[in-house]
Amino acid sequence: MTSFNFLDPAELYTTGKRRVGQNAMTYRRFDSLAEAVRYSIEELSAVRLNGAILEVNGERFRREEIRQIYDSSTYPLKRQPGKADDAT
Predict the structure, then answer these.
(1) Which of 38, 50, 52, 87 lies in the 20 to 30 Å Cα band around 27?
(2) Residue 79: how many CB atoms within 10 A of its CB?
(3) Per the domain annotation, does 86 fall within a domain?
(4) What are phi and psi of 40, to 5 degrees?
(5) Count of CB atoms within 10 A of residue 62's CB?
(6) Residue 57: left if φ>0, alpha if ψ -120 to 50, beta else—which one?
């Protein structure tokens, strides 16, 4: 796995349904990679995390890679059970 600077800014793109048959792409910018990863795992539902793309310094990461970053021994924030854990 790539080594990260958890202080680097990150961008998160997710998909979800606004209405029946209508997908919506959402974008959120985070001041740090650590916060973006925390939000992805602890706040997003498993369905939304499944389609998420996290971008930092031109690199893109999907669900499995976001989870690996969160689970890594170098992850700097305190971990909490998240919504994505409920369905995995």
Answers:
(1) 87
(2) 11
(3) no
(4) -60, -45
(5) 13
(6) left
30 beta partners = 10
Domain that holds residue 18: 10-80
Residue 42 — left, alpha, or beta (φ > 0 → left; ψ -120 to 50 → alpha)?
Answer: alpha
The C-alpha angle with vertex 47 and arms to 85 and 29, in degrees rounded to 5, equals 90
* Residue in this structure with the two tokens 């209508």, named with its chain if needed: 22
12 neighbors 30 (Cβ within 8 angstroms)? yes
What number of other Cβ atoms are within 10 A of residue 11's Cβ? Answer: 14
Kindly state the tokens that stand for 37.
């990863």
Give the model confidence (pLDDT) of 30-86 as tens digits: 999 999 999 999 999 888 898 899 999 999 999 999 999 999 999 999 998 766 565
The Cα 68–Cα 3 span in angstroms is 12
Instruction: Give the number of domains in the chain.
Output: 1
Q: Are 26 and 14 in contact (CB under 8 A)?
A: yes
Location of structure tokens 């539902």? 45
